[in-house]
Amino acid sequence: MLADRPEVRGDGGAVDFAVVGKWMDEQGLPAGEFEDVSALGGGTQNIMLRFARGGQDYVLRRGPKHLRAKSNDVIRREARLLGALDGTGVRAPKVIAACPDESVLGAVFYLMEPITGFNPQNELPEPHASDPEIRRQMGLSAVEAIARLGSLDYQALGLQDYGKPDGFLERQVPRWLGELESYAANAGYPGPEIPGVRQVGEWLDRHRPAQWTPGILHGDCHLANMMFSYDGPEVAAMVDWEMSTIGDPLLDLGWQIATRPEPGTTGAALIGKLGAVGGLPTPEQMVEHYGKFSDRDLSNVTWYTVLACFKLGIVLEGTHARAFAGKAPKQVGDFLHAITLELFERALRLMD
User: Fold this and answer.
1) N or C of the chain: less Cβ packing under 10 Å?
2) How many CB atoms are closer than 10 A to CB 123?
3) How far apart are the C-alpha atoms of 191 and 226, rounded to whole Å?
C-alpha cells in the first residue's frame, strides 16, 4: 500500500493523502503509511475519513467535496470550539491538530480522535434496545451534556468573539422568517404551506424572555447528533457542531424537548431505531434534570421549546423547497415537510 494512495472504503476522493501526510509530518505527528482508511457517515454532507498512521487512529473532517460558501468557515469554527472545550469535561471530540489554511488541501480540515460509541439514529445495541430504563438514562445523559456545555464560561475559554449574543433572542423570529421567505427563489416551490407560521412568530415575540445569560450553544443537539457508550447510557460525545455559537443555551434544552422522538410520528424517524422504540424521559423529567447541572431560570422552557419547533421547522422546509427545484430528492423533501408540520402543530399546542 502506498502511503499517499491508500485504498479507501467509501468516498475519500476529496482528500489527497500525500498532502495530508506531508502536513502531518510537519506537525510532528507519527509517520508511516495510511492504513484502514474508511469514510464515516454523519448527519451532514461534510466528509469524515477514519484512518490509522504510525500506530495512532484519526478521523479527518473537512467540508463537502463541492464546498459551499461557508464550508471552510464552519470547519474552522468547529476546530476552534472543540479545541477550547478540551479539558472542560464537556463530552466532545478531541482535536489532535487543525489546518485552518484551505490552500493546503483545498479545504480547511482537522484531525480528531475517533469516538468509541454508537449513533442511535443508525443502531441501538444491547442492552439499550431491550431496556427502557437505559434509554431513559440516555435521554437524561443528553440533557446533562448540554447543561454542562451551557454552564461554561465562554469568555474564560477565549470565545468572546465566537458569536454575537447581543440581541440573540430578538433576532430569531425575523431571521428565520426571512429564511423562509428566501425559499421562494426555488423554481416551482409554491410557498410554505405551514399552518401557524405567523401565529407562532407573533407569540414568540410577545412572550420573549426579558433576561437571560449568554453561553455556548450547540445549536442542533437532537439525539442523532450524539454518540453513546456501548457499555451504558452515557453520552460519549456530542458531534456535528456546525450550528454552534454564543447565544442562549436554553434553546438547546428546548431543542431536545422539541425533537424528543414520539413513536408513531414522522419526526421519530429522524432518530432512527431509538425513535421507534421510545422509552425516553418526559419533558418534565428533562427540565428537572437540566436544573441539577445549571442555575439558569427554567421558568420559560416552553418558550424555548416553541422557538426550537419554529426554527427547526423552517430549516427542514428548506430541503422541501429545494426539492421542487430538483436540488434535493422529492421523497426527502416530502418527509422533512411532514416533520415541519408536526413541529408547528407541537408549537401551537404548547402555546395554548
Assistant:
1) C
2) 14
3) 33
DSSP run (H or E) holding 111: strand 109-112
| Alpha carbon of residue 216 to chain centroid | 13
| Domains in the chain: boundaries | 8-112, 132-351
What single DSSP character describes residue 13? T
The predicted structure's pLDDT at residue 43: 45
Query: pLDDT averaged over consecutive 10-residue blocks of the chain (352 residues)?
Result: 45 81 98 94 75 97 87 96 97 97 96 96 94 97 98 98 97 97 96 96 98 97 95 96 96 97 88 89 98 97 98 96 93 96 97 92
Matching residue, cell 449574543: 165
254 closest CA partner among 310, 211, 177, 173: 310
**In one letter, which amino acid is 246?**
I
Is there a contact between 135 and 274 (Cβ–Cβ < 8 Å)? yes
Question: pTM, whole model, 2 decimals?
Answer: 0.92
Measured between alpha carbons, how far is 178 from 198 in angstroms, rounded to an integer?
12
Instruction: Provide long-range contacts, Cβ within 8 A and 24+ apart, for 327-335.
Output: 327/186, 335/266, 335/269
Beta carbons within 8 Å of 251's beta carbon, 6+ residues apart: 217, 219, 304, 307, 308
> Looking at residue 273, what is its pLDDT?
85
Q: Which residues contact 213 (CB under 8 A, 6 or more apart)?
A: 248, 296
Question: Which three cell numbers, joined as nine digits, stand for 160?
Answer: 468572546
Distance of CA 310 to the CA centre of its chain: 17
Q: In 3-state terms, what secondary structure has residue 206? A: helix
Architecture of domain 8-112: 2-Layer Sandwich (3.30)
Q: Phi and psi for 249 in degrees, rounded to 5?
A: -60, -20
Q: What angle do CA 76, 78, 82 make, to 5 degrees?
A: 125
Instruction: Look at residue 1 in the predicted model and tell me its pLDDT.
Output: 33
CA distance 180 to 174: 10
Report d(CA 158, CA 170) in Å as an integer: 25
Q: Please give the CATH architecture assigned to the domain spanning 132-351.
A: Alpha-Beta Complex (3.90)
Q: Is 308 helix (H, G, I), strand (E, B) or coil?
A: helix
